[in-house]
From TrEMBL, chain A:
It is found in: Rough endoplasmic reticulum membrane. One of its GO terms (molecular function) is calcium ion binding. Belongs to the CCDC47 family. The keyword Transmembrane applies. Its main location: endoplasmic reticulum. Residues 39-48, 65-90 have a biased composition (Acidic residues). Keywords: Membrane, Transmembrane, Transmembrane helix. InterPro entries: CCDC47 (IPR012879). This is PAT complex subunit CCDC47.
UniProtKB/TrEMBL annotation, chain B:
It holds the Pfam family ASTER. InterPro entries: ASTER (IPR005351). Belongs to the Asterix family. It comes from the Eukaryota. Its main location: membrane. The chain crosses the membrane at residues 41-70. This is PAT complex subunit Asterix. It comes from Cyprinus carpio carpio. GO terms for molecular function: protein folding chaperone. The keyword Transmembrane applies.
């Protein structure tokens, strides 16, 4: 019975082995058949399959299965090997889950498909420029910027030249020196605009009675900067021409006056040092003096306004109201308010008799060189103003009022800085005391030390007595 | 230098010729446009970031900043400063691509 049992076992083993072999053989057969079938697919479209190669990572997972397979796979190339491995894996799985034997294996099939991850070749190894689209975008942006720079620069240059050509005659007839860039020692007339920037051009004119000199600044828009161009699409701005005439002391009487668009007047009243100090009242509407409503006036006193607003001036202002941003006459001109640091004893800012004109170029940014001719009458107005102010003199009352105003401003200034100056004096005194004390402490000779201390004490007492005397005097006076 | 030349003529009235004195921007800092200086500084910061941290987009922004700084610069400004910032930004771009030739990926 034992022998029979043993024989049975052996037979079963054989059968199993045979089955295995058979299975292997089947597998091999299936594998071979399907292998060839797959190879056909590969030969049709090798490029696609190569791209869809599973990465080497998948290879180790398939190696245990590979062991079961025959030696044929080892002899093949790597690429095909991997492909075969995947395929073999597939086939192996399928063979295990035979339709007739098992049910419900379809559910697991998609998961096998999911485990196949198709990796893409890294972009820089692909031979296509399309993957570098961000870089191409960047370079295109840079090229656009450069193009805009060249175009904008040329446009500004043309506008400046057009302005100069139309105004050259008037300026040369009025000024002996037209165009000085300040580089040479003596004042020499270059006859050209001085380019400060790609969007700012200067022209210095001098050599005329009634004024020291005139600086004209053509402040164009930054057409050469693409960022600025894009910002201007949101918020339109104008080109501006700014004329600053500096006068000698005898060329103008003492007053402060400004006229311009309402917005500009409100802004200047806050920003400008002299307008905020001398013209405290709100800007008055221009309608009272015959000029359009859109313009408002800031003045130190009514007499000044009456004196400046003669018929010719009114005519100029009315006919060119849209081009006038601001006109500012001042004998106390010191520029915009400067933010002072704390603790610094201030001096009154330096003032100069100045006429400041700001004109807007028509076109709101889309100006053409022809528009520059329309600014010529405004330059005539400037010349007229220079001559007029030389003759404009305040009467006695006006002069007194003006002097009082100036004295008041100075006093206010001194009061404001008084506290600061006191503080500075206090700190200086403390420093002195400390230095003396240190000297006494450092004194090695005890006798001298004692003597110095006594001297210091006596000085302190004297000071106290003096103070007490003063207080008594003040009390007596008050009584 | 501030030179005054007095010209007197028998028939013409007396006038003075004053030479041009450029406005002193130290006393009046509001007159100066700070854009080119800011852009220069930004450009340098971005190019250093691009070089050190190997960020391609930093290097590209640095190139843009140096271009903007150049466009807004004054004629009196030193070209050496401009050129050096420009060269630094270009070198940042080149170095970041040499180290990592992969194309730049968009942030979205």
């Amino acid at each position: 019975a034992v022998v029979k049992y043993l024989l049975c076992v052996v037979r079963l083993q054989h059968a199993g082995r045979y089955n295995d072999d058979f299975d292997d053989g089947e597998d091999i057969a299936e594998f071979d058949d399907n292998d060839f079938a797959e190879f056909e697919d590969v030969s049709e479209d090798p490029a696609v399959d190569v791209e869809k190669e599973p990465p080497p990572r998948a290879a180790p997972s398939s190696t245990p299965i590979e062991d079961e397979e025959d030696e044929a796979t080892v002899e093949n190339e790597d690429g095909q090997d991997e492909f075969e491995d995947a395929d073999a894996q597939d086939q192996d799985m399928y063979s295990k889950y035979d339709n007739e034997e098992f049910e419900g294996h379809e559910k697991t099939n998609p998961s096998f498909k999911d485990t196949l991850i198709y990796r893409e070749v890294p972009a820089h190894l692909q031979n296509s420029w399309e993957s570098y689209y961000m870089e191409i975008l960047m370079v295109t942006g840079l090229l656009a910027y450069i193009m805009n720079y060249i175009i904008g620069k040329n446009k500004n240059s043309r506008l400046a030249q057009a302005w100069f050509n139309s105004h050259r005659e008037l300026l040369e007839s009025n000024f002996a020196l037209v165009g000085d860039d300040g580089t040479s020692k003596e004042a020499t007339s270059t006859g050209k605009l001085n380019q400060e920037n790609e969007h700012i051009y200067n022209l210095w004119c001098s050599g005329r009675v009634c004024c020291e000199g005139m600086l004209i600044q053509l402040k164009f828009l930054k057409r050469q900067d693409l960022l600025n161009v894009l910002a201007r699409m949101m918020r339109p701005v104008c080109d501006q021409v700014q004329v600053k005439v500096t006068l000698n002391d005898e060329d103008m009487d003492t007053f402060v006056f400004a006229v311009g668009s309402r917005k500009a007047m409100a802004r200047l009243q806050k920003e400008m040092q002299d307008l905020s100090e001398f013209c405290g009242d709100k800007p008055k509407s221009g309608a009272k003096y015959g000029i359009p409503e859109s313009l408002s006036i800031l003045s130190e006193m009514g007499e000044v306004t009456d004196g400046v607003m003669d018929s010719k001036m009114v005519h100029y202002l009315t006919s060119h109201a849209d081009k006038i941003e601001s006109i500012h006459f001042s004998d106390q001109f010191s520029g915009p308010k400067v933010m002072q640091e704390e603790g610094q004893p201030l001096k009154l800012p330096e003032t100069k008799k100045t006429l400041l004109f700001t004109f807007n170029v028509p076109g709101m940014g889309n100006t053409s060189p022809k528009d520059m001719d329309s600014l010529l009458p405004l330059m005539n107005m400037v010349i007229y103003s220079i001559d007029k102010l030389k003759k404009l003199r305040l009467n006695r009352e006006g002069k007194q009022k003006a002097d009082r105003n100036r004295a008041r401003v100075e006093e206010n200034f001194l009061k404001q800085t008084h506290a600061q100056r006191q503080e500075a004096a206090q700190t200086r005194r403390e420093e002195k005391k400390r230095a003396e004390k240190e000297r006494i402490m450092n004194e090695e000779d005890p006798d001298r030390q004692r003597r110095l201390e006594e001297a210091a004490q006596r000085r302190e007492q004297k000071k106290l007595e003096k103070k007490q005397m003063k207080m008594k005097q003040i009390k007596v006076k008050a009584m | 230098m501030y030179w005054i030349t007095v010209v007197a003529h028998l028939t013409y009235p007396i006038y003075c010729l004053t030479s041009y004195k450029p406005p002193n921007t130290e006393t009046n800092p509001t007159l100066e446009d700070p854009t080119p200086d800011y852009m220069n500084l930004l450009g340098m910061i971005f190019s250093m970031c691009g070089l050190m941290l190997k960020l391609k987009w930093c290097a590209w922004i640095a190139v843009y900043c140096s271009f903007i700084s150049f466009a807004n610069s004054r004629s009196s400004e030193d070209t050496k400063q401009m050129m050096s910032s420009f060269m630094l930004s270009i070198s940042a771009v080149v170095m970041s691509y040499l180290q990592n030739p992969q194309p730049m990926s968009p942030p979205w």
